[in-house]
Structures are given as structure tokens and as C-alpha cells.
Design a protein that fits this description.
about 260 residues; 12 helices; Transport permease protein; transmembrane helix
Length: about 260
């Protein structure tokens, strides 16, 4: 069946994308919520937060990388929810009786997550531009930002696959994303970590979001990324590999 993997995956991908276009709550949650946070922090809290820069436009530059990560974290909750629905509706059982590649079911959901999140990220960046965000980053730097965000999306999506396959309720399938959405608040996404109390600062400086945010921020600002980019990539790849292993194990148990 492996020779049919690509075609089967594309067919199931089209099915998943059509479901997204019919789900307005998905669009609201994955796009409007991060934009609301960006507006709130910029125009309500931005003037009171000392990041070493001045003006709301400058704070948008500081804020945007964290908002991009929050956008992905809110988006992947629907990956788990959609996968749970397919499992509950007996889709897996029906597909097993058809001559298709079994892994194409999961990969269709993964690619749907990537496509949906890329669209959400583009919209968020467009709103940031309207708010005054500007970057002198080169084309290669923007490619690096895109690559890191896609890798981050893949890592979180494979995490989402696990509750999507193992949860017993729809709420349980998507609830795992709540800590991921709020993890940027305990990082350098909104304020410099040196302003935090000791234990919180220690956690913030050694969790994945901070290294990814700092790398994106430096790329946007045309600053040297240093070894931070390797730390960010290591976090993304490490999470991706571990999540993929456990997701595939859960899927094999489900279809066995």
C-alpha cells in the first residue's frame, strides 16, 4: 500500500481542509484570539512593560514572536479534536477495509494542521504590519523564521495526535493545548526574563519557548542568533521525535 501513500494522504487532506472551511469557530479561535492578545498587550499593557524599547510599534516587534507561537498552540487543539471525531465516528474502521495506506490518516491531519496554521500565521503577521511592525530581515532570515515555525507546528501537531487518539471525550482531546497556549507567558515572549523572580526566571530561561522566541526576535531584528538557534532547533526536533514515537505507538494500538 505504500505506493499509494501520497495519493491517499492528499485525498484525506482535502477532506480535512473542507471541514475546516465549514467550521467558523476554528477560524475565530486560531486567528482572532492571538490577534486579540496582540492588541491587548500592545495598546493596554505595552506602555507599562519595559523591554528596553519605547513606543507601541517597538513593543509589537518584541511581542510578535510570542504571539506566533501562541497562534500555533491554539491551532493544534483542533487537530486533536478533529482526530478524536474521526476516531469516534468509526472512520478508522471504515478505512481499514479499504485499500489505502494506514498512516495516511494521521499524515492528512498533520498536513491539515500545517496548512491551517500557516494561514493563521500569515494573517497574524499582516495584522502586526498594520499595527506598525516592521522588519529589515533579509529574505533568508524570513525563510529561517518560516522554517522554525513549520518545525514548531509539526512538533506540536504530533503532540496533539496523542490525545486525539487516546482521549475519551472531545474536551479531553483539546484540553491538553491550554498549558501550551499559556507557556509563552512564562518565557521571554512578553517581558525580559531578568524582570522575573528567581524560580520563575530559572524556568523561563530554560524552557523551549524562550529559546525559540529569542531566535525569531533576533532574526526579525537582523541580530546575530548565536547558539540560541541551535537550542531552538534542538527543542523542536526533540519534541517532534518523541511525540511522533508515542503518537505512532498509540495509533498502532488503536488499529490493531
Amino acid at each position: 500500500m505504500n505506493k499509494h501513500f501520497l495519493g491517499d494522504t492528499l485525498v484525506l487532506l482535502g477532506r480535512s481542509l473542507r471541514h475546516i472551511t465549514r467550521s467558523m469557530d476554528t477560524i475565530i479561535t486560531t486567528i482572532l484570539m492571538p490577534i486579540a492578545f496582540m492588541l491587548l498587550f500592545t495598546y493596554v499593557f505595552g506602555g507599562a512593560i519595559d523591554t528596553g524599547t519605547t513606543g507601541s510599534h517597538a513593543y509589537v516587534k518584541y511581542l510578535l514572536p510570542g504571539i506566533l507561537l501562541m497562534t500555533v498552540a491554539s491551532g493544534i487543539a483542533y487537530t486533536a479534536f478533529r482526530l478524536f471525531q474521526d476516531k469516534s465516528n468509526g472512520l478508522f474502521e471504515r478505512l481499514q477495509s479499504m485499500p489505502i495506506a494506514r498512516s495516511s490518516v494521521l499524515w492528512a491531519h498533520v498536513l491539515t494542521s500545517v496548512v491551517a496554521n500557516v494561514i493563521s500565521l500569515v494573517v497574524v503577521v499582516a495584522v502586526a504590519l498594520l499595527m506598525g511592525f516592521r522588519s529589515g530581515a533579509s529574505f533568508s532570515a524570513w525563510l529561517a523564521v518560516a522554517g522554525i515555525m513549520i518545525l514548531f507546528t509539526l512538533a506540536l501537531t504530533w503532540i496533539a495526535i496523542i490525545p486525539g487518539l487516546t482521549a475519551s471525550t472531545p474536551d479531553g482531546a483539546s484540553a491538553f493545548s491550554y498549558p501550551l497556549i499559556f507557556l509563552p507567558f512564562l518565557s521571554s515572549a512578553f517581558v525580559p526574563t531578568h524582570t522575573m523572580p528567581g524560580p520563575v526566571r530559572a524556568f523561563a530561561e530554560h524552557q523551549p519557548v524562550t529559546s525559540i522566541v529569542n531566535t525569531l526576535r533576533n532574526l526579525f531584528a537582523r541580530q546575530p542568533v548565536g547558539t540560541g538557534v541551535w537550542t531552538a532547533l534542538a527543542w523542536c526536533v526533540g519534541i517532534l521525535v518523541v511525540a511522533y514515537f508515542f503518537a505512532m505507538a498509540a495509533y498502532r494500538r488503536k488499529i490493531s
